[in-house]
Design goal:
51% of the residues lie in helices and 12% in strands. It is mainly alpha-helical. The chain is globular, with a radius of gyration of 16 Å.
Length: 199
């Protein structure tokens, strides 16, 4: 099953001023496209052709680094575009998510602090996550293209902390980018959709 670059679910300038048209053009059209192109080349003769993207990610982890890196990033980015929306973020969460964040993570404010902290403290490139693991919400971080799938969890929300995700708009101010992501960009409806599918 060949990897394909999905179109953005909104216009390139729809996430401004928090994420610029220029960032989305580079990030989606160049970086994500490269993961798709390289992933397809590495998928050939890997023995994993015809498997779902999730299966390719899980089965290449620790065995085929090149394929894993590109398949993992392709998976992460397919969701990353949907984890954002214009006028997103903030505290008005669907009730189901709010009660789970309250019971598992100590409430929204603590979630916000811990999620941003995970992104700030991910050394180098990687991701910060809200995941479902063993029936509970957890906040984690991973290096490079890794995600909770390969650690027994289900990704529900992820933020890309590779520099190409924020450097045009925020330069070296990663914390500012993470605050903008949580406060103004998160698509909580999509997080709920993933949670309901996983639960």
């Amino acid at each position: 099953m060949a990897f394909e670059l999905p179109p953005l679910p909104y216009a390139y300038d729809a996430l401004g001023p928090y994420m610029s048209k220029e960032t989305l053009e580079y990030h989606h059209d160049k970086h994500h496209q490269a993961y798709v192109t390289n992933g397809n080349n590495l998928l050939k003769d890997s023995g994993l052709e015809g498997k779902s993207l999730e299966e390719v990610v899980k089965e290449s982890y620790g065995k085929n680094a090149g394929l894993f890196n590109n398949a993992g990033q392709h998976y992460n980015h397919i969701h990353f575009w949907k984890w954002m929306k214009p006028n997103g973020g903030g505290k008005s969460l669907p009730g189901k998510l709010q009660s789970k964040i309250d019971s598992d993570l100590g409430g929204y404010d603590k979630f916000r602090t811990d999620f941003i902290q995970a992104g700030v403290t991910q050394f180098g490139s990687g991701w910060a996550w809200l995941a479902l693991k063993d029936g509970k919400f957890v906040i984690t971080k991973t290096p490079n293209g890794e995600n909770p799938l390969v650690h027994g969890g289900v990704p529900l929300l992820g933020v890309d902390v590779w520099e190409h995700s924020y450097y045009i708009d925020y330069r070296n101010l990663r914390p500012k980018y993470l605050e903008a992501f949580v406060d103004s960009l998160v698509n909580w409806d999509y997080v709920l959709e993933l949670y309901e599918a996983a639960a």
